[in-house]
């Protein structure tokens, strides 16, 4: 009934003051309550810290599991890669030996063909040199014959007199015609030799180009073989 006003005509009862012992007991209880409240607060804070640490531990555990899965996948991939490298190494070892044998055979064939081509080139150069000398000789002979015939005609014409001048003139003309035929024949021979020399030069140019292409091809093959061997060594 506390909180209600007293009935009319009645006085409100007065509370008795607590005794000294009760006050001391009340103060002691209040002190214990404060200590218990402080202890509860400390425990609450400790519980919150433990919950936070537990959450952090869970996050670390999840991260560790994720990292472990990644490491496991990486190890599996590395193992597969090493197996593939070992297979490639074995295949490369087998194929490189056969390719090297084939390459050596091709190089030997190329060297033999190059030797034959060089011998052919030397022979063609010698033939060209001889034809050039022969052309020079024919030109010199042609010039000498022309000069000699011209001088003989002039001498005969200057020496013509009397009744036999007509016969000498006819003989000089016949010799001149014969000389002209010889000159034309020599010119045809010179032209034939020059044409042959031109063909020889063309053939030499073609052979030189073929030899250069052969050398480039050999260098490419050697470079390719070296690259394959280097790859095999790197794989090893």
Automatic annotation (TrEMBL):
<feature type="region of interest" description="Disordered">
    <location>
        <begin position="1"/>
        <end position="41"/>
    </location>
</feature>
<feature type="region of interest" description="Disordered">
    <location>
        <begin position="208"/>
        <end position="236"/>
    </location>
</feature>
<protein>
    <submittedName>
        <fullName>Uncharacterized protein</fullName>
    </submittedName>
</protein>
<feature type="compositionally biased region" description="Low complexity">
    <location>
        <begin position="20"/>
        <end position="30"/>
    </location>
</feature>
<feature type="compositionally biased region" description="Basic and acidic residues">
    <location>
        <begin position="212"/>
        <end position="222"/>
    </location>
</feature>
<keyword id="KW-0175">Coiled coil</keyword>
<feature type="coiled-coil region">
    <location>
        <begin position="166"/>
        <end position="203"/>
    </location>
</feature>
